[in-house]
Structures are given as C-alpha cells and as structure tokens.
Amino acid sequence: MKNVLIIFVMIIVATCTWQHVSADQTLHVTLQLPIKHHLGQNLLDFKEEVEQETKGEIKIKIYPSAKLYKDREVPQAVSSGAIEMGVASLTVFADKIPAVDIFYVPFMFSSVEHVRRATAPDSPIRTAIDNKVLETGARILWWQAFGGTIILSREEAIRRPEDMEGKKVRVFGKTLGEFVKTVGGEPVLISGSEQFSAYKHGVVDAGMTGLTTIRPRKLYQVMDYVSLTNLADIEFVVLINEKVWQGLTDEQRKIMTNVARRVEKELRNKIERIEAEALEFIREKMTAVEISEEELLDWRRATSSMIDTYMSTSGSLGKKLLEEARQFD
Description:
By secondary structure, the protein is an alpha/beta fold.
C-alpha cells in the first residue's frame, strides 16, 4: 500500500512538472534574413502578440541573419527538434516534397490575385502543402509573403531569355535551377545569406532573388542591374516542431494560431507596398530594367516546357496542385 501511494505521488509530481514546463517556456526561432527585413518585422509582431496574450507563459527568441542555420538546414533542424521554430523558403522542401515548387514554375501565377487565392489558408493548394509538410515532423504555422522573383546582373542587363545563355546564375531552388538550364544558363545553388559574397567575388554572373532582399543584404553594392521579370512567386513559411506544438496547452495553441493568422494577413495585405518601397530605393542605387510585353512573351515561350518538367518530378500531388492552379486562369 505504501509503494502504491509513493507511485501515485510521483505521478502527480511529474504531471505538475510537465504542466509547468508546457505553460512557461521559450521558443527559439531561426531566421535567414536581417531582423529589419519585412519577414523579420512580421516575426517580431508575432513574438510581441504571443508573449502579451499568453501573459509571458511563452517567450520567443529570434536568431536572425542565419546565425544558427542556413535556409536549407532549417526544415531538418525544426523537424528533428534541434530548434523549436524556424523560417524557411518553401522551395527548400522540394527535395522531399517536389510538388511545393508549384510556386516556382515560371509564370504559373500571373497576378497578385492568383497568388492570394493559392496561398489562402483554406485553399486546396495551401492545405495540401501544409498537410504534406506536417508529415516531416514540422508544422507550418503561417506563410510569409515575400514577393516576386527578379534577376540581378552585373555590367549588362538581362532582358530576354538569350541574355542568360552561358551565364552562371545564383538560384535558391531546384525548379528555378531547371528554369536557368532551360534558357541556356548554369544554375548555382547559393543560400540567401551567402549572396553578397558570391556576387562580390564573381562566383556567379547573375542571380535570382526578391526585390526586398536587395537593400538589407546590400546587394546594390555588388550588382548593377535589376530585371523586373517577376517570373515566380516567392513564399516563406514559419515552422514549429510538431512535438513542441503538441506539448503546448490548448489555449496556447489557440492563441498562437490566431496570432499567426493575423500577422500573415497583415503582411499579405501590404506586400505590394513593401515591394514598391523597395523598388523606389533600388532605382536610386541600380538600374531597374522594365520588361516589355514582347520580352515577357519571349520568356513565357522559352520556359513553357517547365510545366512538363514539374509534372514529371512532382508526382500525384503535383498533378493535383497544377489542376487547382489552372482554375485561376
């Protein structure tokens, strides 16, 4: 009887300890970009609201500028539990889930409205991707709008597909790498935090990135031209380890979900303004190359085979996502 009582007391103590750990903890987040970038500011908004609404039970510590992990390392770090949370480009999941690169198929989403519909929390495309990523052990809390893909170059502007021929081009995903090959270039996979060095030392001749990275990463110091191709939509996702998520209380999960939805919507609603402000700064430092309708048609024609490439590598999930995306036309 005495032993039974001791075991009972131990269970109560263990339960109380787990409740305390679950109710009061710090979540560490790895971020690839500087905290001043709009993804960093969006993450700060989330941190402040969660800490306030949980009355300090949950604290969030952000590690910006890839201090802990590079972009491609984030999914494994979060899913393994090496860190509780992380921000990563959606395309870094393409090795395990090729279908996520639907957003990087050139000109797949031809308008801001199409992007909004595809990335809406209840859209079939978004839901399918979120569910597939969850199988890796990491849960997507929210998506972060990043903007369109542009091309940086030095010495000469890139206007048409043939201008890419023979050039080494920085890319940040497999499908964008195929895009570069399709137009005669040589793709080089380089993480976002290593772009400046790669451009400065001539590792590549050109590079693909987003408008909003140019200022915080000081890319205007090492490149001359920005070609406004807007050839693909860039999406980032904020991840949390699934075991950590399940270890939170129902109320904590509810608070974090609601805050995530709010900050996601706020960023999505202002991404066009953010890009416009970034372009205004860029025009003072670099030459912004407007792409004409005729030139844009050349890009579309040159990369039309990319849909078949995507279909051949993305399996049944890719077929499903492509069917959904085509309904936007």
